[in-house]
């Protein structure tokens, strides 16, 4: 069994500015905590990815379309597809689950 504490990653994030922290990795699953800076610098992922929006709101560009997102929503991005968050609030954060 592998364990980690969600609040540890949240406590390590600065109030402002970009922050990415690898939180958990086991087998075919990797989990990161992500807080973008003023601009989301995400690039295409090699693997299918889930984004769990944990605070804030904004928009996501995913597979050629724009969608509003807010706290509590989950976004799925297929491997190799362009995606990024934009026009997001300063408190925007998300957990990223990479499915390898």
UniProtKB/TrEMBL annotation:
Spell out the SUPFAM superfamilies in the cross-references. Answer: RmlC-like cupins
- From what superkingdom does this record's organism come? Bacteria
Q: Where is the Cupin type-2 domain?
A: 34-87
Classification via InterPro entries: Cupin_2, RmlC-like_jellyroll, RmlC_Cupin_sf
Q: What is this protein called?
A: Cupin domain-containing protein
């Amino acid at each position: 069994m592998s364990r980690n504490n969600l609040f540890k990653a949240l406590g390590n994030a600065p109030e402002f500015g970009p922050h990415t922290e690898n939180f958990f990795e086991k087998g075919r699953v990797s989990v990161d905590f992500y807080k973008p800076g003023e601009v989301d610098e995400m690039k295409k992922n090699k693997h299918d990815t889930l984004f769990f929006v944990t605070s804030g709101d904004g928009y996501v560009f995913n597979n050629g379309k724009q969608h509003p997102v807010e706290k509590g929503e989950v976004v799925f991005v297929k491997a190799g597809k362009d995606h990024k968050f934009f026009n997001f609030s300063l408190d925007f954060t998300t957990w990223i689950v990479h499915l390898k």
